Each structure stands twice: as C-alpha cells, then as structure tokens.
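User: Fold this; tokens only.

Assistant: Input:
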Amino acid sequence: MDLIAGPVRRTVRGAALVLAAVLIAGCTSAAAGQSAGHGRKLCEVLTGPPNAGLNHAVQAATGVAHARLGITSVARAGIAPSFGPFTDGRCGLILAAGYDQAPSVFAMADRYPHQRFLLADDWFDFGSAADLTRPNVSVLAFEADQAAFLAGYTAAAVSQNHVVGEYGSTNIPTIDVALNGFLAGARAWGEDFRKQVTILGWNGAQGSFVGNDWDQRTAFLITEDLIRRGAHVIFGVAGQAALGSAASAARHPSVYLVGMYNDGYTVAPQYADRWLTSVIFDMTPPVLAAARSAASGAPVGGLYVGTIANGGVQLAPFHRLARLVPEALAIRLRALRAGLAQGWISTNPAAYTPLEKDTGNGNG
C-alpha cells in the first residue's frame, strides 16, 4: 500500500514482517513444546454473512485450524455482532474480521487483558505503530493493492475496448487500497502499451459504493451502469454483494469479472465462465499460528502483513478464461509480480500517466 513515503514505508513494512515472523515462529515452537490442553475454542465475530467475502476467507482458515489442531469454532455474525457472549473466559482466541471491528477489538483487549484477540484485515497508518502496543492482540493486514495491480493490468489488456470498471462496498481505507491498486494496474497497462484506457467507477478519490457487503441488487445496478458505459471487465470489492455483478455480467456477452478475497471461480462456480481472476487473501498461515498459540497458552501480539512476496495476497488462476491471456501477457505479469514483491513497482495510481480518456467516479 503506497500510504507513506517510500523509504519510511519500506522500513516499517520490514519491521512488520519481522514481527510477523516472530509471531508465526513463536506460536509454532510454543505449540510444539507445550501440551495444547486449553484454549481450543476459537470464537469469531463477523460483520455480515459468515460465508461471504472476507468472512469466507476467514472460514477457510478456521477450517484448517479445526482439521489440523482440533480447534472448535463458533461464530456470531450480522450487521453489528456482539463480543459480549465471548468474554466469559471460554474462548482461547476471539477473532474479529474487518476494518470496522478495530475499535471494538482494541477496547475489549484493554478491558480483558488476559483474553487473546485476532483482528483480521485491518488498515494502519504504517508511520505510527500506536495500535500495535497491546500484547494480547494479533493483527492481520493485507497489501491488497499488490494483487489488485496485477488484476487491473490484466483487465485493461483483456477488455475488448480497454474499458474497465470497479466499485466498492464502502469508502474505507481497506477497500480504497484495493480499488487504487486496480486503478494503478490498468493505468500502467495503458502507459506500457501507449493505449487509451478508461477506468470507470473510481478515480482514486471518489467512486461508486454499494453501502455494505451483501446488497446484491445495488451491486447489480452499479454493474449494469458500468457495462452500459462500456466496461468489459468489472472489479467488485464488495464481498457477497459482488454476486450481483456476476448476475449482471451473465446477461452481457464478453463481460468478465475480477473477484475479491476469494477465488470467485470456486466460490460461485455457476458463473465459472465469467471469472477472469480474483484477488485472494490467504489467511491460513497467520490464523493457524494464532490458533496454535491460543491452544498452547502462549502469548499473542504483533502484526502480520500479507503481501505478494509471502503469499498473503495472490492473483487467482484464469481458469476457463486462460485463453484470453496470451503468453506475452502472462510473462509480463510474472515480471510485474516480481517487481511488486521487490518493492520497485508502485501501486500508487498517480505514478502512471497513460492515454486515459476518462476516470469515471460513478456519477455519469
């Protein structure tokens, strides 16, 4: 995420990755050296449907924890799920998913210093680590812009008229980061090939938003508008609501989708011929590490940052639409991935100046 100046950003990210390594290695060794006799209940606080969007990625990770460690899990999900029932001391680890959960997690962590918490998909001003001072909270953050950059680059190349569209659930940092990565990637393709590219729905500051992660009808209407304006590839950073985009794309020839959080091809196979690719979060390693720690009674705390380099964020396979991605583009994507991993390719949309006709903000 290009959120702070380059050198400072790299330094802080490096420190975060060291913390992540300590967190995972420490949890693993502690689990190996102690009997896991307590803390084997993982309690999840999930905003929205439990098996959609970000929550689906969480469920996949907790499923692995159950299979490998025998961890049992229980979830409370909804528009405003409560932490209250999980603070009776019976939960070895309380996991909360989503940027909007951060205030509650840190407040509860202060109130219950002996309870372990795991906050998934938070966002930070990486120039300040004030939120990382609680020893009983592990935080998972993801550089979604890195994989989204690759998705945007691919989308601009694949779109018949080089017009693409994107929209989000709500206008918050974790969503905007992914939108900006896609915008930067599409612009970069236009700059590389000196082609006019049009990105509709988000201009780096304003755009189209559903309002939540589950309103499929609103996502359908946003997508219909983007298609009407010429978009042939749509990126919806909107959890389950993005299935509305899939329903819309299915009505139009040569309109394809980029999923978010999970591989859309696997999650919604009824639209298998529409998923170009997806931006994937792999939460399994850090969730498994935190679950091991909780089961063994070891302390938790620290920041894990999922990146292209460590596999925390990934670009999904092209599956049935691989025919749309020529070998030259596939080779270029591998080079871009390496550049993103090494830090010399920017995901800041302002770094690219293609022959761009219009960056739409969703207002026509």
